[in-house]
Every structure is written in structure tokens, then in C-alpha cells.
Design a protein that fits this description.
Helix 3 crosses helix 4. The chain is an alpha+beta fold.
Length: 136
């Protein structure tokens, strides 16, 4: 009975305080959508004082243990971004990947995701202007 009461208190505390990024990051990743949700908990864009908001896409693969396989590759950056904006966002993306790995895959998802490339979009603007995309 005391064990059940302890769990209820924990649930109540989480509901009152909200789920932190670290708590959300502890959840098992069982679907492709979970991969994207998990990565969003780790994303911290550069402050506006350092870089203008841009969109950036990275292609990354994971091994069965949830670690990054090979090297992540930037495949898209907003065309109007300056070189400094690009650098700041590339660093922020790599830091997000470091914070989120190893990815806490379930056994089933580990087998399904291992070696497959995922294109992860980090969007920092409400809407993207209709511009020509710039390939990295």
C-alpha cells in the first residue's frame, strides 16, 4: 500500500511541476515519431543575440544501442542564413544530438532503426518564407 501511495505522489508531483526535458528524455523510444519527440526535448536553439532564427535539417543514423552511427550530415539550411547563423545552428544541432544519445530504444525499435538514416528538421521559425533552399 505504501508503495502505491509513493507512486501516486510521484505522479502528482510530475503533473504539478510539469515534465522536464530530462524526465521526458528517459522515456523509451518505440516508434519513429518517438525519435522525433525525443530529439525535440534536447533541442536548444541559439539565443537570438547570437544568431537569427533559421531552419536546419540533419541526417543521422543510429546503431542498435542508440548511439550515432557514422557522422551526422547537415543537408539543409535556410538560404538567408549568414555564415555565423549557420555555424551557431550547426553547433546547436550537434549539442542536441549529444544530449539525446544514446537514444533509449526499445528492443523492437533498436532492430528497426539501426542503420537507417533519419532526416531531422530543427525548425526555429513559425513559418518558413518562400525562398530557394540552400543545400549544405
Amino acid at each position: 500500500m505504501a508503495r502505491c501511495a509513493g507512486k501516486l505522489l510521484l505522479v502528482a508531483a510530475v503533473l504539478l511541476l510539469g515534465v522536464s526535458g530530462a524526465a521526458a528524455g528517459d522515456a523509451q523510444v518505440n516508434t519513429i515519431q518517438d525519435i522525433f519527440r525525443h530529439l525535440r526535448t534536447c533541442w536548444k536553439p541559439p539565443p537570438a543575440a547570437k544568431a537569427r532564427p533559421i531552419d536546419i535539417t540533419v541526417v543521422v543514423s543510429f546503431n542498435r544501442a542508440g548511439n550515432i552511427l557514422g557522422h551526422p550530415r547537415i543537408t539543409y539550411e535556410s538560404a538567408e542564413a549568414s555564415d555565423d547563423d549557420r555555424l551557431q545552428y550547426r553547433v546547436a544541432v550537434m549539442e542536441a544530438l549529444q544530449r539525446c544519445t544514446p537514444m533509449p530504444f526499445t528492443d523492437a525499435m533498436a532492430g528497426a532503426a539501426a542503420g537507417r538514416p533519419f532526416a531531422i528538421q530543427f525548425r526555429n521559425r513559425k513559418t518558413s518564407p518562400p525562398t530557394q533552399e540552400r543545400r549544405a
